[in-house]
Amino acid sequence: MPNTAVATPEQGQELAPCRASDETLELLLTRRSTVAGSMSEPGPDAGQLRTILTAAARVPDHRKLAPFRFIVLQGEARAKAGEALAGASRADHPDFPQERIDFEGARFTRAPVVVAVVSSVKDDGKTPEWEQVLCSGAVCQNMIIAASASGFAAQWLTEWYAFDRRVLDALGLTQDERIAGFVYMGTATETPLERPRPDLDALITEFRA
After folding, report:
1. Before 192, cis peptide (omega within 30)?
2. Which of 104, 115, 151, 176 could disulfide-link to 89, CB 3.0 to 4.6 Å?
3. pTM for the complete prediction?
4. What is the DSSP pairing of strand 153-157 with strand 39-40?
5. Annotation: CATH topology of 33-75+110-191
6. Average pLDDT per block of 10 residues along the chain, 209 residues long
7. 16: which residues sit within 8 A by CB, 6+ positions away?
8. What are phi and psi for residue 137, nearest 5 degrees?
9. Are the C-beta atoms of residues 27 and 92 closer than 8 Å to each other?
10. Rounded CA gap, 159 and 162, in Å?
11. Rounded distance between C-alpha atoms, residue 151 and residue 185, angstroms
């Protein structure tokens, strides 16, 4: 397991404008999500999770608004939070068998650590909402990369409960907040396989004067 006790810079400290790193490029070019259901213990410990969240929060952020926050679910709290999922499923689908209700209630227990990334747009009258939403997406991406670099499998999910008001209320979100993603982290129990990737040439156009 890599040492995640990495020093962070002090405010005003001079920083390198770039860091050539073949290792970083290799990680970005080969990173693969692991299905949450294919994770087990151990997950990040307190120190490792602190480093992962610190890296996640280090994103482009116009006007330094930090339009996001984290809700950490681990231990028994995962099952407690899952009660909201089970309740919503039971209310919406009274025909569901108990096995399905139990499945929905256990979604957060699929991995040792789950972090809800909450998009909290700030109305400063200047910064577009879209920029702030994109900032939260960058947080999720940074988090799964940092988890991988820390030696853990990770998956960024939303699924239905990210959009269910009853679940959001149970997690303590305000009416103006949304879930950018639930990031599941743990140890892979299966080796993920490479999936199809987009044809890069089909995505690139060059503007010409």
Report:
1. no
2. 104
3. 0.94
4. unpaired
5. NADH Oxidase (3.40.109)
6. 70 94 96 97 98 98 97 98 98 98 98 98 96 98 98 98 98 98 98 95 96
7. none
8. -65, -40
9. no
10. 6
11. 10
At 78, the amino acid letter reads R
Contact between 66 and 111 under an 8 Å Cβ cutoff? The reply is no
| Sign of the torsion formed by the C-alpha atoms of 22, 7, 112 and 105 | negative
Q: Which residues contact 181 (CB under 8 A, 6 or more apart)?
A: 116, 117, 137, 140, 156, 157, 158, 162
pLDDT at 2: 53
b/e map 64-86, b = 16+ CB within 10 Å = ebebbbebebbeeebeebbebbb
Residue 118's pLDDT is: 98
pLDDT at 83 (0 to 100): 98
**Closest C-alpha among 159, 166, 165 to residue 182:** 159
**Which residues have CB under 8 Å from 101's CB, separation 6+?**
86, 89, 90
